[in-house]
Design a protein that fits this description.
The chain has 16 helices and 13 strands. The chain has 462 residues and is of the alpha/beta class. The longest helix is centred in the middle third of the chain and has 25 residues.
Length: 462
């Protein structure tokens, strides 16, 4: 293939039982033979594909460095589509760096971030959306996110995109045949038939596009800010949801001065819970910074859990702060219900009167009262119905959404041309643009700069 042979540590940095050095390229076997000596004396280059042999890693002076297993995967049946050797050593980072150094001195080049996956794409082992699914799978924060990424890696999204491209391609062929061979006697599509054909493709694409809101949350999670005045129980709620004492809780107002961020799995939805400094006027410069940071976080949050102390009720400060926020992204959480037992009815009426049009519920963070109801309400705010991961394609990548938006715009333009009675040439221009935008998702029509940018975001060794 003429490509340089590359190598990198493919396992996470840190202590582990096993660490892997991956080597890929035409000279993978030759380079590996310089670093590895099998117990049997047989060279790696003499092994069949998909074989594992035991031996030792030796440095340039033939001194022992580590025990290892060498795994062979010859082209085209490897991840990259090239000859690949993986040296499986002990997982200490010092050992792995030493083995990698030996491999690089033997003739390999250190791989760039994502270069193994990029070679898999360039060699036709994966399309671009499948390659992007690798990093989604690695970074998945919940089992649901991992399942969606795995489906993308298997090509479920690619398959739907390719079906749409094929349908557009067939229509382009029919229209071009009509233009190129006007004298030929074959069945021609009427404008109504063309429009009906495009509506079917458009419906499929809109269904995928509609899934992006849920898909983005599955992949990235919801950013949930815990907001309220000092000592209302924000940190207690964080600890209760996480089922661990993550934040310091005291009776002293202003204990939390900086933000605390932790991921929490809510039925497959990764929630980034952000415990913030209590909102109040303060002369303390550190606390002032914390309050300003809280206001910035509120702007970025998908959901604000505004926590009230039910003993104090709704204050003018609460009303003033809430008036700056859109009601649809706020859930009022009345805390310490255990301390006002028997007064729930009165409390609900007061909250409804002072905070009109806000969702609210009552809990006790310390006694774990109402926590399940809170979790259910968060789900209901963002998901009207239960996901069925098994039977649905979720769009999770903003790049894919942008390309699909553009593809749908060109279909709308093509349908407008049909409705206006314009000739087929105008329709073809839009259909070919649609084909290109869909091809950007799978990588068939994307430029090299975009490809390099995508793979540069991958981790080293992948």
């Amino acid at each position: 293939m003429g490509e340089e042979t590359i190598a990198a540590i493919s396992t996470a940095y840190g202590s582990a039982g096993v660490g892997i050095i991956r080597i890929s390229g035409d000279d993978a076997a030759t380079i590996a033979d310089k670093a590895f000596k099998s117990k049997s004396g047989k060279k790696i280059s003499e092994q069949a594909t998909y074989r594992i042999i035991y031996g030792h890693i030796l440095n340039e002076e033939k001194q022992f460095v580590d025990e290892a297993l060498a795994l062979t995967m010859w082209a085209p049946g490897s991840f990259t589509g090239e000859d690949v050797v993986e040296l499986q050593c002990h997982g200490g980072i010092t050992v792995l760096k030493k083995v990698l150094e030996i491999v690089l001195k033997a003739g390999a080049r250190l791989a760039e971030p994502g270069e193994f996956s990029q070679r898999a794409f360039l060699n036709g082992r994966l399309d671009l959306s499948q390659a992007e699914a690798i990093i989604e799978l690695i970074n998945a924060k919940t089992e649901t996110a991992a399942n969606v990424a795995a489906k993308h890696l298997q090509g479920v999204l690619s398959s739907e995109i390719k079906k749409c491209r094929q349908a557009i391609l067939e229509l382009i062929a029919s229209l071009e045949a009509d233009l190129d061979f006007p004298e030929e006697d074959f069945a021609r599509l009427s404008p109504e038939e063309i429009d009906s054909y495009l509506i079917k493709v458009e419906t499929t694409m809109k269904t995928m596009l509609h899934s992006f809101t849920s898909g983005r949350i599955i992949r990235e999670g919801l950013k949930v800010a815990l907001i309220g005045q000092p000592n209302v129980g924000k940190s207690s709620l964080l600890n209760t949801l996480l089922k661990t004492k993550r934040a310091i809780v005291t009776d002293v107002p202003g204990t939390t001065r900086d933000t605390i961020e932790e991921y929490y799995n809510l039925g497959g939805i990764p929630l980034l819970l952000i415990d913030t400094a209590g909102i109040r006027e303060s002369e303390d410069p550190v606390e002032k910074i914390g309050v300003q940071k809280t206001k910035e976080i509120v702007e970025q949050a998908d959901l604000v859990l505004y926590i009230l102390d039910l003993k104090s009720g709704v204050t003018s400060e609460d009303q003033a702060f809430l008036s700056q926020l859109p009601t649809e992204k706020v859930l009022i959480v009345g805390n310490k219900i255990d301390l006002v037992s028997g007064e729930e009815g009165k409390i609900r009426k007061k909250i409804k009167k002072k905070l009109v049009n806000y969702r609210f519920l009552l809990i006790s963070a310390t006694e774990k009262i109402g926590i399940q109801e809170l979790e259910k309400e968060i789900k209901n705010m963002f998901f009207a119905e239960k996901w069925e991961i098994k039977d649905k394609v979720f769009l999770t990548n903003l790049r894919h959404k942008t390309a699909l938006d553009k593809a749908l715009a060109t279909l709308a333009s093509a349908r407008h041309s049909i409705a206006s009675g314009l000739p087929s040439d105008f329709i073809l221009i839009d259909l070919k643009s649609c084909l290109d935008f869909l091809g950007e998702i799978t990588g068939e029509t994307v430029d090299e700069e975009v490809i390099n940018q995508i793979f540069s975001q991958f981790c080293l060794g992948k």
